[in-house]
Write a structure and sequence with these properties.
Elements: H1 2-66, H2 71-78, H3 84-99, H4 105-109, H5 117-132, H6 137-194
């Protein structure tokens, strides 16, 4: 009985320390997993912003090429002058159109990983122009030009707003420092008054 109590007193600290170590390990693993997720999410958002910024530019180039070429030829010719972030997707689109020329599948699969409504709308218009020919192509292409112009302006304005927000946040740093200094000085005044001096 006495040996059992002694053994229990000896093992309790080890059990408590082991539990703390295990809990600390779990917390560290969760923090690391969260940091990895946030890093991947930030990279995804950065890539999405880049694609949504460069897509209207590529669309403008494509619209110029569509004046004298079919949709397939214009997309194929736009590959060398397209932004680097879009080239892989454009290559897949060209391959998909070669395999299924009249299918909407390749157009739907273009930048599918980023799930952008604007990209899907533009690709549907390109598919319609590709299938229907030049009857109402000018009307649709003009609508696409107007939409891409608004989209490009929105993207540029959004970038400017982000920069302004960052600069505004930097302006708060001196304000916070002065506030903390003021609180510290007021605390010192209160302490000196309490001491009687």
């Amino acid at each position: 009985m006495k040996l059992h109590k002694n053994l229990m007193f000896i093992l309790v600290p080890f059990i408590l320390v082991g539990g703390k170590v295990l809990l600390s390990g779990i917390i560290i693993l969760l923090l690391l997993e969260g940091m990895i997720y946030l890093n991947v999410y930030r990279q995804y958002k950065k890539q999405l912003e880049l694609l949504l910024y460069e897509f209207p530019m590529w669309l403008r180039e494509l619209q110029c090429l569509l004046a004298y070429n079919t949709v397939y030829q214009a997309i194929k010719l736009s590959y060398p002058i397209a932004p680097k972030s879009l080239r892989g997707s454009i290559k897949e689109l060209v391959r998909g159109i070669e395999v299924q020329p009249s299918s909407i599948g390749p157009y739907h699969n273009f930048l599918k990983d980023y799930d952008s409504l604007e990209v899907r709308k533009v690709m549907k218009v390109l598919h319609r122009v590709s299938v229907s020919g030049t009857n109402d192509a000018n009307i649709r292409l003009n609508a696409m030009i107007v939409e891409s112009h608004h989209w490009l302006m929105f993207s540029r304005n959004q970038k400017k707003e982000v920069r302004i927000t960052h600069v505004s946040a930097l302006g708060l740093i001196p304000l916070i420092c002065v506030g903390l200094l003021f609180l510290l000085l007021m605390g010192l005044v209160v302490v000196s008054l309490m001491e009687g001096g």
